[in-house]
Specification:
single chain; about 75% helix; mainly alpha
Length: about 170
């Protein structure tokens, strides 16, 4: 082996990089949702049973911190996925389809995907519910909602703890 790689090898490396981090993002979200579901169930159970407010405070803090950490991990995976997407788009730009140009735009999946808007512009979007959000935006909404639920749980259980000691 002479240490040289072909364009096909380079493309395969970029694709594997993209595939790995895209799958990692999905696995991370699945684990997050399962873990958060368990925490939310525990928080609701503690609230309905009464008492154990200190545990509720701890679980609220845990949920908020966990949401922040998972958001940061997802953000890192998103950036790594974007690196691979950029490389793959560069390969798409270089592909030679001179034998049949009718497929040129259709096969450039990453280039086409980049053209889809992910930020709503008020003049174009009349309904935020029908706008195509990116995975990153949806993930962020999920992390923020559960992060705020963790903070709210912390506040509620702290107040209950104070009133329980009076």
């Amino acid at each position: 082996m002479n240490g040289k790689i072909t364009e096909k090898d380079a493309y395969n490396v970029a694709w594997k990089h993209f595939e790995f981090h895209a799958k990692q993002r999905l696995s991370l979200l699945q684990f997050y949702l399962i873990f958060t579901g368990v925490l939310a169930t525990a928080i609701v159970t503690i609230f309905s049973l009464g008492g154990l407010y200190s545990l509720g405070i701890f679980l609220g803090i845990l949920m908020a911190v966990k949401s922040l950490l998972f958001y940061k991990l997802d953000h890192r995976n998103k950036l790594l996925t974007k690196v691979a997407e950029t490389v793959i788009r560069e390969f798409e730009r270089k592909f030679d389809f001179s034998y049949d140009n009718k497929y040129l735009d259709k096969i450039k999946v990453f280039t086409k995907a980049q053209e889809i808007p992910t930020e709503p512009e008020t003049k174009q979007v009349k309904n935020i519910f029908t706008f195509p959000y990116s995975h990153g935006r949806v993930y962020k909404i999920i992390f923020v909602i559960f992060g705020f639920l963790g903070v709210a749980s912390f506040i509620v259980f702290s107040i209950l703890q104070v009133f329980a000691t009076i």
